[in-house]
Amino acid sequence: QVQLVESGGGLVQAGGSLRLSCAASGIIFRIYNMGWYRQAPGKQRELVADITSSGTTNIADSVKGRFTISRDNDKNTAYLQMNSLKPEDTAVYYCNALRAAPFRGPADYWGQGTQVTVSS
């Protein structure tokens, strides 16, 4: 029923840009906090950025100034704009939807991931 579908990953040269999209279905999108995580080979999954249902954003220090998270509630889609990409940004990027308890109780959903590879 609930589905998060990431897209926009691919191979890009260092210094380039990509925009990831996370299309959500089966949820009341506007009440969910949305987040982007990434996992590189041999490393733990880490939070890259998130945006609350009210639009407040949080960006990890490692990507601050280069990445931007946004959402379009009319399209039920969250985005991660990635600029000035570095080889160390190479990872599988995952979309997460988190519903806070005040909105019909908590919930937590994940997408399947999209590969981002940055060549040097």
Task: Please tell me about this protein's structure.
- The chain is mainly beta and 120 residues long.
- It is 0% helix and 54% strand.
- The chain is built from no helices and 11 strands.
- The strands form 2 sheets. Strands 2, 4, 5, 6, 9, 10 and 11 form a 7-stranded mixed sheet that branches. The protein has a 4-stranded antiparallel sheet with strand order 1-3-8-7, with no helix packed on it.
- A hairpin with a 7-residue loop joins β9 and β10.
- The N and C termini lie far apart (40 Å).
Descriptive tags:
120 residues; mainly beta; 7-stranded mixed beta sheet; 4-stranded antiparallel beta sheet
> How many runs of DSSP E, i.e. beta strands?
11
Q: Please state the average pLDDT score.
A: 96
Structural class, judged by helices and strands?
A: mainly beta
Q: Give the overall form.
A: elongated
Note the main sheet.
Answer: 7 strands, mixed
How much of the sequence lies in strands comes to over 45%
Q: Order of helices and strands, N to C?
A: EEEEEEEEEEE
Q: List low-confidence stretches.
A: none
Compute the separation of the termini in Å. 40 Å
Give a quick rundown of the structure.
The chain is mostly beta strands and 120 residues long. The protein has strands at 3-7, 10-13, 18-25, 32-39, 46-51, 57-59, 67-72, 77-82, 91-99, 107-110, 114-119. It is elongated, with a radius of gyration of 14 Å.
